[in-house]
């Protein structure tokens, strides 16, 4: 395969924290701390473990609703609140979280991430999502969630506004001269005066330019509009990839789009999700995996599958294959279209039963599921990394905190021995960990201008 | 004077943090850490000092704009981001901040404060404000800030929605039974289904009910609508009072309104702002005060005064009294009406020059300014507290961190010796510090119903 991208010589790793584990039934496992889900101690422990493992970053997803509280781990503390709390008990770890563009104000988002970047000394990253579901819209007094394409148009404008607000103070605007009484250089603090189709702001922001210039911009969409958005603004992509071949195609496709936006190769790191069930032997790993799968209630599998496919399957027999005559679920989906396609392909190719497909989704939500030993896992990670399928991985431990601990204790040392991962942080900021340049004021607008000149 | 309120036997204290000091020129003083304004170390130090002093809470104000960056301390890190960061390095201190109802979504505010309450073990408090200025509206894509009365109507609905969201999980909704796979009792997690004039939400919230039931509700308005709002929802009022007599009238007025809303006396703590310049001798204190006043640039005094009165005074001679023929500034003001009235009275009564009035506003922004020794300050605080002028004070150190340190080192011990302030925390939560009851689900709706029954 191969591309002409400038590659970092080591992979990047995220510690993706989700409920008391990524596996749907992970919270029921003895190694979970589900009792700690709504306190800070669990997350302090996880952050300490991730930092001990020299992870580039800790990553929190976000959902703006709850359903199925009866049988599923439900409810999430606000991710930015958690990251801020963790900033004072960590030193190097990147602190990244999902914040939706659809249900927030750009001025607030710009300020919150700038503030996190300041208090963490340049360790903040924003996973830009557009949310997914009508039930999220209903919590915000809106009758329905905006359509997929429109959401990305809105998101583009949202990010435009946010980056302009981060640029509204030049890097050296603060003077702080007690003697003369000059606090800042007013000429270097300028309004934004942005009037867009969906968002407008006068500015300037009420916080100076963040230490990293912009907190790292992360993007998680893998659909067409998602890829284009990432190629324009993303510096990290979290993507769901099930096979090395698909991941290589995705890697090549996204990288080829970078230049359209005047961006240097290497300026966008692609990190697929990876959910590892690890055992000292293969047998032990599989035993743990089957144990987890059996803990998924059949009713949850059906409910989640019905929701995912936008079609009520509760009347169908659980042990039969997914019917082929249901309305096209990809067309019906208003979010995660690429993920839905992936599962449809899997269901029909492998002739999975409804229960099997439902449980499969609940296992790692479309991300790569690995079961095996630390050496086997390292082999896969090395193969993908060296084969230009990715720049690293977002690790999704099935049970938290136990499986993050296991990963750091057993997999990280093997990666390090093979020279695939850092043994110590060399930088201070998340940009430094990721090998990303610090953007100048007006960074994206200059890139777009450069791209326009290239095209002419 | 006196009222029939149930009084706490000791006063309550807040440590109000604002820029590098409350005094307009405080940042220029040698004891300020203005260089630390956009980092976390300053705030960690302040929190540690406040906790050492056994303060009930730390309090952050908020402004959603910057102006005058050239000559004034400008820009503020997001207060909730700071409080979250401080939650992991403090143990007992209440963590309270201003969040505007006008430029946020109720679902987000409910969740953020619930999250802070969880991670701090029940130490969160929300200062409910409606913001003040058109330049804030402009940052949020709105042509103008809503009118004063309307804002309070909107705020009432906003708080209604937020408290219903906090109530959407019953206190014992979480089950967390690994064996049966039951995460929560679905019957105890219910939608809110609220459709209001300005805000609607379906719910439930995506976070369980906070440890305190509701984070403590603080209110800072002293105008008519502000008082009514506080009497309905507030559990703490931060108010600006210049004289004991006016404070006593305010205290009696607000307390008399409580029963209209079915609320018990003692369920609302009134804490005026107090900005103390302290010296070992009176002379030393006054020297410091005059030193600070002289650091206020005349241009800042005129600009701020003009903004405050909504009338451009830059053409007038600085050493002359405030002209009496300017348009009524109280009518022209769309925020802090009670504060404007207070300064107008002061200006005409004391025949202040324009410069003096401007500098006076910039000294403590309408709050009580004290200059003297720790013993003298304690006398004043005791006199107000015992005279039913307040339930405590929100301390506004003119220079930060220096003057908070001084207050804790020199004033707190005198208050403690006289039995007026705690020598150790007896509780864990902010409600416990303040002697406020933990509200049951449906608390405010029940109170309103009780009040309706009483009236009938």
TrEMBL record, chains A, B:
Keywords: Flavoprotein, FMN, Monooxygenase, Oxidoreductase. Belongs to the NtaA/SnaA/DszA monooxygenase family. CDD domains: Nitrilotriacetate_monoxgenase (cd01095). FMN binds at residues 62, 98, 148, 152, 222-223. Residues 16-384 form the Luciferase-like domain. InterPro entries: Diverse_substr_monoxygenases (IPR051260), Luciferase-like_dom (IPR011251), Luciferase-like_sf (IPR036661), NTA_MOA (IPR016215). NCBIfam families: FMN_nitrolo. This is Nitrilotriacetate monooxygenase. It comes from Paenibacillus glucanolyticus. One of its GO terms (molecular function) is monooxygenase activity.
